[in-house]
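S1.2 Input.
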Amino acid sequence: MAERYSNKPSKYERSYRILEYLKKNTDQEHKVKQSDLRKIEYLKQYIGNKETFNDTIVNMANAMNSDSNERINPEEEWRIVFDAFARRYGSEGTEEEDEEGTQRMPIRGLYYHHIFSYDEINSLIEGILFSKTMTPEDGEKLIEKIESHLTTKFYPKGAKQICRVNEPQLTEKGRMRENLKLIQQAIDERVQIRFRFYGYNRRKELEPVREEKDTVSPYYLVANGGKYYLLACKEMTINEEIVRNMSIWRVDLMGEMEIPGRDEKLGIPGIPALKKEKVKHLPKQWSEDFHLSHLNMAFDEPVKIRLKITRVREKADYTFLHDWFGDTFRFVGKSDIVEVMCSPFAMVNWALQYSDRVEVLEPESIRRQVAEKARRLYEKYGEN
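S1.3 Output.
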């Protein structure tokens, strides 16, 4: 290893080493003062005398807590914080030029204000753990980098691995990542995409569902139930009438994706997408409750549906209802009668799945569909 040219550290090195220590060993709940830092053996050579240390910290705070015009940033954007700096420039400080304003500011209550809170770090790590485009090994490495560079020694580390069930992957992770990237680009630029849609055959191989590619206007990318979906519109002509309904596509079943009509040299982003207002059943603004009324990402228009919860041993269990509808269901009329907003197609299949726990009361059209499916099931499985 090369030796230093001088035993005296440069101003830059002094600032860098102190900053490095503060990032890893301080936060808003764990502050330090000059005497604490002098007890750290490897920091001694970088701290210098009292005046040098004071100037170093003040210069760091001025540089990291202000913009290019030397205006102090809002407090939430500060990085180097200590009591005297907060009193002078903070919201609770005073603008009056007192005796302290002409002297060196004492360095007490010093800490590094991290860009990400621990709750935000937890959200990042949770997203990595449940990512469908990243291997467990790559995820673990990324989590280690996040914990090493974005947290302190006080960060309560959690699980780095979650045992995953074996889920069939219909596309390579690399292609999935490219699909998501291109779709997001098209959404941002409000242009259409074209792709070939696939499904499995009896040989357990992917094959195109139809010969021609599908062209759609993309609007929302949704992660739900371990898969990515695209909310879009495929404009069609049915009986000489143009139909523009919302459709939902699984991203892992898309291939050969492109943005038709795109010419970067001429600055043409592609074919303009249909405006949201022209698409039937498409939400104009995204709602995090979308999946609660579109179970299993069914895409027909949700309607009000009245259900009766079946009592078992004089007790009704609402856990399964909450698992699917959250707290969006409401009680109406008699006890154990609830109302939900749900896709009719999804409700028919859901009601059959929980036929021992729930009964569809209204609307009559959905009740008849459930009854018809039940009749066909009886014909298939009933006594001969």
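S1.4 Remarks. Residues 95-102 have pLDDT under 50 and may be disordered.
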